[in-house]
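2024-03-11 09:14:02 INFO receiving multi-entity request
2024-03-11 09:14:02 INFO entity count = two
2024-03-11 09:14:03 INFO echoing inputs for audit
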Amino acid sequence: MTKELIKGNEAVIKAALLAGCKSFYGYPITPASEIAEAAAKYFPLAGGTFLQAESEVASINMVYGAASVGERTMTASSGPGLSLMQEGISYLAGSELPCVIVDIMRGGPGLGNIAPEQSDYHQIVKGGGHGNYHTIVLAPNSCQEMCDLTLLAFEMADRFRNPAIVLADGFIGQMMEPVEFPTKAIEPEPKSWAVRGDAETRKNLITSIYISAEELEQHVLKLEKKYLQANSREEMYELYRTDDADLVVVGYGIVSRILKAAVDQAREQGIRVGLFRPITLWPFPYRELSVLAQWAEQFLVVELSNGQMIEDVRLAIEGERPVRFYSRVGGMVPTTEELLRQIIKASEEKDVRANLSKTQEFLWAV
Amino acid sequence: MYAQTFQRPRSFYGQFDRKPGDHLTTHYCPGCGHGNIHKIVAEAIDDFGAQDRTVFVSPVGCSVFAYYYFDVGNLQVAHGRAPAVATAVKRALPDSLVISYQGDGDLAAIGGNEILHAANRGEDITVIFVNNAIYGMTGGQMAPTSLIGMKTTTTPMGRVVANDGFPVRVAELLSTLEGPTYIERVALYDNKTRAKARKAIRKALQNQIEGRGFSLVEVLSPCPTGWGVTPVDSLKWIEENMLPNFPLGVFKDKSAEREHRTHRRQAIAIQDVPGILGLNGNAGNERSAGILAGGPRTSCPPNVDYRLKIAGFGGQGLLFLGRLLAEAGMRQNLHVSWLPSYGPEMRGGTANCHVNISTTEIGSPLVSAPTVLIAMNKPSLDKFENEVVGGGLIIYDSSLIDHPPARSDVEVIALPATEMADKIGSAKSANMVALGALIGKTNMLDKDALLHVVRSMTKKVALLDLNLRAVESGFEFARANAAEESLWGV
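2024-03-11 09:21:47 INFO inference complete, emitting structure
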């Protein structure tokens, strides 16, 4: 087995080509540019197409074209680029076209900065485009998972005929770690619904327009059925030392790594704390998280955003337990020691509800 | 006795089953130009024998329902984006006939960027641009091609230049680009102009079939409903109002001289892809060969847990130093991570990277409390000195930093790295001196294996010897330093 020390952003491209991806259409943006650069290097060599589009609007529509002919295709960007792609993502979902989109999150809103944040959660997980649709969202926390989840994203996108998004942050994209790649590439199954410019597929139609209300209702219900199926079968998550945990910390991506280290240090101090890491952000592992509420007395969500995923955590806990929140934004990333302090603080103030009346802080910060 | 004078093109459905309601008539208004243009396109597809190869791309506009009518592969796409979609279709299917059929709002307003760049790339596609100077689908609003003074629902007093600008002349505009092969503007107001339109559209399609590159035909087309005139008067309207603004003619034609404009991918078998990515793991791959598979760490401590911060100026090769460490650590079967400070910081300012090398799994790749700091300039030492854990190690370049660290609870090596490197041959190898000193001091990695990594990762041959000697000199410095210290200790 060979291991390669490789950037997360580059691992994505190698994985994509191993998944049989044939085309990459993208536009440069820090901190995602290495993905396009690696694609420019490898796609033509591997018998595919790399094209630097004139904008993210164009690149997502090129992806639409490539997906329409039934080939595996992808793009990558960061928050501002994803904002521009939302129209196209809605069309892709509406036309039931599979593709993979990689978002290496940076600081926002507006131009923000190029440092890591997790503030794209809402636009990616909740869907920033118009209409009744969802995208599959996978959140890697290592370079190895940049490879593994990219492979999985292509597979799920095809299976659900829907865009799948790999949601990572600037750290995961920029860091290097050893990655073990598969040694065989996959030849994807041909798609009978695609328009391939031949007699066999001449009658096929790729469209998201259903001008009659009855037809559109049927179409939306069909999509919804698909989403319900994903919701009941596809959730992925990681549990770490949660079996006896009084406190469960919840984080994804880079935050989960720092939390894991903090959990270990807190355990050394005798604090019974565990980590819940959602790997699929859509579908979100609500049930698995809610199970923990049976014994965990409280939850602490840590995000590099002002509180986006916490909404899903609260939905899962359904008010049964207090859900605390800690965040850094603007590209600031908490240290292990910082999160350890938050864990200690939480464990020392167990009876949050009893304290509710004492201080107004709890109305907002808990 | 009868003679058949009209036959429906085969590429046109006889009955429009995809259309809700009535399946026999089109959704177009009486007198609309789309019918004419559809017929010309469908006949050409037939005549070229291209029905099975055609992919028809219809974005938003009155012709968004082109798939009701054309019995070919159909894609309905977003407003203005057809040239981008068509680009990817053609790249994937070089032998198909890709038609981007767009209206004026679609192509000249919202899709201005997509058409500009598809034309500029010279994509081997055919664009039919229907210019009727109005938004038909949405009910008669101003188009980028609406005429000055023209009343529309969004220019109730007429199009005013001061507020709305001038009608956009697409054929002229795109003809200034090198990319396009063929651009012509035609009209549909009498038999003569219809015949010319037919000829132009056929040529634009034929060009693609012959791989001659980007062709666009702009068609001045009647919209009686949008203009508020009768179908008969709409023909006169084109002649009287549109022609003065949009002169007919060929604006660019390089059809004869352009060939082989179709992009074709390399034929690569899927099983060859891992090899192309360097993942075949064959004997030639040094990572799997002998010593480097595991690497002897017999001379090193069995358990290590190093968290390093390596900082200095951009250009001192400190990110590279970190990568060498991580690569060597990986080859010695340790857990490693490398995290750079990225972006503009890397260009001229300070640069730093975080490296973890450990016998156990690495939690955070972010090094907030380093066990080792390598500081190669003063700002870096000032910034990170206080982060180092008690009992940790600071190696600093004493050739560039005049004040030693103030900390007394850490080990400090004052390493004149730049001077030493300069003596060896180039100050650029100061990073390698620091690397050698680190290994000499900590013994965290096997030196020979590290030197092998330096050999395999130094891209410039001229630098290799220099780098190796720099590592050795740093190593010796640290060992001598240690010996001296132990002497004093005695």
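2024-03-11 09:21:48 INFO post-check: Chain A touches chain B through 87 residues (CB under 8 Å).
2024-03-11 09:21:48 INFO post-check: Chain A has two domains: 3-233, 238-365.
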